[in-house]
Design brief:
This protein is α/β, with parallel strands linked by helices. The chain has 8 helices and 5 strands. Strands 3-2-1-4-5 form a 5-stranded mixed β-sheet, with helices on both faces. It has one domain: Ribonuclease H-like superfamily/Ribonuclease H (Nucleotidyltransferase, domain 5), CATH 3.30.420.10.
């Protein structure tokens, strides 16, 4: 279970406000990539806080409200489909992470980043934490906000494009989703670069 050891270590080095940063949606065939940044108070206790992938949708939704209520500051941002296509998914993820950090109302002086890649152009000192969403409370909180926000957007896309059943697979490349793409073609919210292998040279 995640704890505050990484946050405490950063504060022992002299940093005062530590944010956790994580993303959701690097792998799907549709929709933007979403990132969140969260600053939690040192004494914060959130029961059930964990890597968003290990939680049920119902539990993530419940924790979303608790995190927003208890956080000193939080921010969620996107890397757009256009940015994914123009640059690549990694660059779009970095853009989303930087936007999330920049969007915090209380400015952090240190960031804990999930994964093993430092976001390009990040403006504050940081460290990467592999599988950080299972190790750091701040990163775990960010993972939940990013996942829930992105899932909610996919539910909106489902209303616009019901033929793709986004509400079920959230844009990920399930067999049902790929079958529906082959049947209905590519929607405006799909990522064409992610579909080249599926559709060959037809896009």
């Amino acid at each position: 279970m995640p704890d505050f050891s990484f946050e405490t270590s950063a504060k022992d080095k002299g940093f005062k406000l530590v944010c956790g940063v994580d993303e959701a949606g690097r792998g799907p065939l549709a929709g933007p990539v979403c990132a969140a940044a969260v600053i939690l108070p040192e004494t914060c206790e959130i029961e059930g806080l964990n890597d968003s992938k290990k939680l049920s949708e119902k539990k993530r939704e419940a924790l979303y409200d608790v995190i927003c209520d208890k956080a000193l500051a939080y921010s969620v941002a996107f890397g757009s489909i256009e940015e994914i296509e123009k640059l690549n998914i990694l660059e779009a993820t970095f853009i989303a992470m930087n936007r999330a950090i920049d969007g915090l109302e209380i400015k952090p002086d240190y960031a804990l980043i999930d994964g093993n890649r430092v976001p390009k152009d990040i403006k504050i000192p940081c460290e990467t934490v592999v599988k950080g969403d299972a190790k750091s409370c701040s990163i775990a909180a960010a993972s939940i906000l990013a996942k829930v926000t992105r899932d909610r957007l996919m539910l909106e896309y489902d209303k616009q494009y019901p033929e793709y059943n986004f509400k079920k697979h959230k844009g990920y490349g399930t067999k049902e989703h790929t079958d529906l793409i082959l049947k209905h073609g590519v929607s405006p919210v799909h990522r064409p670069s992610f579909l080249k292998k599926l559709l060959g040279g037809s896009i």
